[in-house]
Amino acid sequence: MKFILTCLALCLAVTASAEEKDTSRIPGSPVQIIPAPERTEIDEGTFRLPESGAAFYIKGENSGQLVPYLESLGNGFVPAGRQKDADIVIETGDKAVKGLVFKGKEDEAYRLEITPEQIRIKALTEAGAFYGLQTLLQMTREGKVRELQCCTVTDSPRFGYRGLHFDVSRNFRSKEFLMKQMEAMALLKLNRMHLHLTDGAGWRIEIEKYPRLTGFAAWRPYAKWTDWSADPVYCEQSDPAAAGGFYTKDDIREILAYAERLHIEVIPEIEMPGHSEEVMAAYPELSCSGEPYRNSDFCPGKEATFTFLENVLTEVMELFPSQYVHIGGDEASKSGWKTCPDCLRRMQEEGLENVDELQSYLIHRIEEFVNSKGKKIIGWDEILQGGLAPNATVMSWRGTEGGIKALKSGHDVIMTPGTYCYLDYTQDAPFKEPEAIGGYLPLSKTYSYEPMEEGMSEEDAEHLLGVQGNLWSEYIHEDSHAEYMYYPRAFAIAEIGWSPAGTKDYEGFRERALELCGLLQEKGYSTFDLRTEYGDRKESQSALEHLAKGCKVTYNIRYTDQYPAGGDGALTDGICGGWTYGDKKWQGFFSDADVTVDLGSVKPIHYVGATFMNVTGAWVHIPQKMEVYISEDGEDFRLLGTAYQDISDKQNFIFFKQYSVICNEKARYVRVYAQRATRPGACLFIDELVVN
Ligand code: ACM
Ligand code: ZN
Predict the structure, then answer these.
(1) CA-to-CA distance for 13 and 9, rounded, in angstroms?
(2) Less Cβ around it within 10 Å: N or C end of the chain?
């Protein structure tokens, strides 16, 4: 009996095969792995690996690093003298893949054949053979399962770029940490490590020409970003309180050698023109004001800025073999540029209309420089502002609009929209999770992301390089916390990046994720515990019935257009918000809130209440107070009662607070006024306004 499983058929096959034998669930079956392979044929029988290890034999021209890799695994892999004595034969080159058809990218494709006599891996390239081995390693649970289901796996990735991002600026991580995460990435067939090496919180790479970057800008008198952000200063490396660090060039070489063996391309990011407070503190002459601690952006009006950036990039490009340098480009404040004489002169000389065009001028110049060295730039989607540099690859994070716009103009794009790919968002109910920046991104949501959107053409697909998961680390001090945030959501990124389109099955994926979390835990990783997942806010999961539901709301102060939720009817639509205002169910006010609800006729009322959200890290605060007024005619209102803030809104965790007034009255109109917190920039987020 032999049956074929494409990804799509995985869940069906569990049922179909049950009549024969549930091969999908026996240990050592390839259908349990992540990312799900493109095509799997389950064959009769099993192959037994010797208890002591496995003898391997390598054939073909493309296998440079496989022997040291296998020997480094410590699972008893030993070279066999002759092919026929080997348990595993790995063959690479044209001959190995002759006649094989892969649906994805051939240069990472492989075929894995497990017969009762032998295991064979065939691939065009060493990377393909490496991924065949990763499939095998997951099937064996890294050597613990010795009896393997006979099968043929034909597999190739959907996208060439499958990335994971590491923010080593906000909280520095050791090279050992990065190498450990590379091992997990390899197991998941993730092939790009994006290193966010520079940001306001610390410069993390040795640059010989600019020693103050690592002697000063890499060190803070506070170890934790959350402590430092209240007093964002730097200190000398020799300061007894100095915390932070940087990678020496030798460290980077070590990281890169490790990455090469694991078929991971490490992409360095050097932020510009914004997020550069640390550079402006060390070399204030590169800022508009010329003074430390005044500007966060480079001054694009000064030639010194370009000299500095080109010198830094030269050293970076000499070190990293990647074809790409990520130049950041996000969230520049541009505020100093508007009044800086150098910036204004540059704008006049270059005929630039506004500061967006000035940013674009800087990115264009940097791109030209990077291209002249035979490399390419990637930038966050803000590099579209003021005109995109001709050869730039766009990393789309503020949704996918920027990415789509770039695709439509023929640019390469990597999708990493925050709502699906920002792994720093809380992955479960905030009351049970570690402190986080906010948001709510459960595994199921990351997994549901589909990079090919409606309206994208075949041509767009050619330029859609792939996907990436990002872990910004402001709130993530400990390595174990970082791992907890990556896994299992990085599994979903891997499957989106590798497995064929249209084959998703969350329940099946979740089961595989549980298995793989177990394996990673055994290997010493901290992972989120999917078994105790709470899920979204219960109030958001079913409609709420109350007296004001469906009633007209008049806005005495209007909500912000950025967070309208459902618009004018949102506060009385019976729909409550979930754990994040990003779910489009919370209505946002960048001011006080003031609304009047018309119940349609005079009615007895006993309760008026509303729930507010608090996410200190995002300037979302519960109100100082909520006043409730009532009226029978809509003209004369009287104060019914006031609910006051009775819990600190400064605490750095996400919480929800219901404000209410109890009464025994009659009214047709109910006016609710919420006074926002005193913190400058504080905003209010309200879900349902309930009257009963
Ligand atoms: C970003 O999240 N600022 C790229
Ligand atoms: Zn300037």
Answers:
(1) 6
(2) N
63/96 Cα distance (integer angstroms) = 12
First to last CA, the chain: 64
State which H helix or E strand residue 236 sits in: none
Q: Whose CA is nearest to atom 1 of ligand 1?
A: 330
Kindly state the tokens that stand for 553.
């709301």
Q: Which ligand has the minimum distance to the alpha carbon of residue 394?
A: 1
For residue 147, give every residue at least 6 positions away whose Cβ sits within 8 Å of its Cβ, in sequence order, or none. Answer: 27, 28, 46, 47, 48, 49
Distance CA 151, CA 365 (A): 53
Nearest by Cα to 391 from 424, 368, 422, 358: 368
Question: Tokens representing 25?
Answer: 């669930």
Query: Residue 116 contacts by C-beta under 8 Å, 6 or more apart in sequence?
Result: 45, 46, 47, 150
Low-confidence ranges of the chain (pLDDT < 70): 1-26, 62, 652
What is the per-residue pLDDT for 654?
85
Give me ligand 2 centre to Cα 366, in Å. 17
Tell me, using a 6 A CB cutoff, whether residue 331 lines ligand 1.
Answer: yes
CA distances from 466 to 155, 164, 189, 230, 319 (A): 17, 11, 13, 37, 25
> What is the rounded CA–CA span in Å between residue 292 and residue 370?
28
